[in-house]
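ESCALATION

Customer reports they have been waiting on this structure for their group meeting. Please prioritize. Original submission:
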Amino acid sequence: MVVNRKPVPPPPGFDPNDLTKRFEQLMRTKRLNDLSERCRSRASSPTPPAQHIHPSRMSSQHSSRPVSEIPPSYSSLRNLPKVPSPPQDASSFRFRNQLLTLSVGPTKYENPGLLDEALAVIPLDRIYSEAEEESDLLRAQAASMEDKLKRKVKPEWGYQDCVIRALLKWFKRTFFTFVNNPPCPKCGSPTVALGMTPPLPDEHARGAAKVELYRCSATNCQTHERFPRYGDVWALLQSRRGRCGEWANCFSMLCRAVGGRVRWVWNAEDRVWTEVYSEMQKRWIHVDACEEAWDNPRLYTEGWGKKLSYCIAFSTEGATDVTRRYARNTPKHGAERNRCPEEVLLWITDEIKKLRRENMPKEDRPRLAMEDQREEKELRGYVVSALAAEFGRTLPIRGLGQGRGDEQKIPSQRSGAEVWREAGRSNGQEEERPPREGM
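Update from on-call: job pushed to the front of the queue and completed.
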């Protein structure tokens, strides 16, 4: 049996809307009190000490977290430009001091007296004649291509490039001599290395920080021969002999004497060489006088199988890390770069640039800055081309990853410098060092 009850009427003066507002206010007050109490409890409780978590336990802890708490991946940030950072650790400071010392070498090429001495030993008539002949030939080839392609074609190299090329051929074939073990000055017999000996005052004055001592192998002679490792260009113009350090130092000076813009490139392993700027190509050209190599930067890695870590180019205009020009495939041809962080190296090269350019005319600085940007784009392009070439080897696509003509200029034969280095290692001698050490 259903009983119908009548609703109880509200008491007089009751307002439901007012009751709702009072309830909401009460809840807001309660929430505020809870939050205030929680903040006071955090401030009064001591901070627990940080616990060391073994790396093997970190992965398990990370995997137990909710997906929302896992931080996002920042691998894409590796492609962002590096921000130069000053050196902070002892290793970085040592590398900075070394690079600052090396950067002084090319400034000596501006000595007017040395430039006159260098011009005095160069057969200028022969050099300029050969350069003009090659330049005319290149212009004729460009004109022939214009007729065939029906568009303007520039010669591959300009006249100043041809001057350096003629100078390179004369320097290698006529002027300078590569020395392994110097012959006996008395009888001309081969000599045997005895080790290092301190330089004499005269040798030290001409930039020889070390001297190699040899003895004649003939039993009836036994004459001793000293081989000072001169770092002074004037002394090299007189002796006209040495290894790759002396070759690069002297040849760079001669290039400067005939008007070329020159860089002296130091490699952290055991090699130095030259770069000259081509106005026609608008880029820096690799030149190794010891090998008579022109525009063949992959010679050391793909030709000789060497791994390179640092290749730093020094000039009167600053310093630049040009490693990517010579070791383009970093996983295959790059050695470990552990002298300092990459941001610190960028800071050091910027520091040297500012030091060398601070007294330059103001109109030259924007031009050099544009050249720096163009070269950075070029160096990035080498890395991209190397990656494309590696990718192209996995696909049957013809022409993928091919670069400029210098890609094919990799000789297979071994150089005198390489033979000397192997002989030096077997005899326990030191490897090549920069000219400042009398290399």
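Sent to customer with the following note: Residues 47-53, 55-78, 423-439 have pLDDT under 50 and may be disordered.
Escalation resolved.
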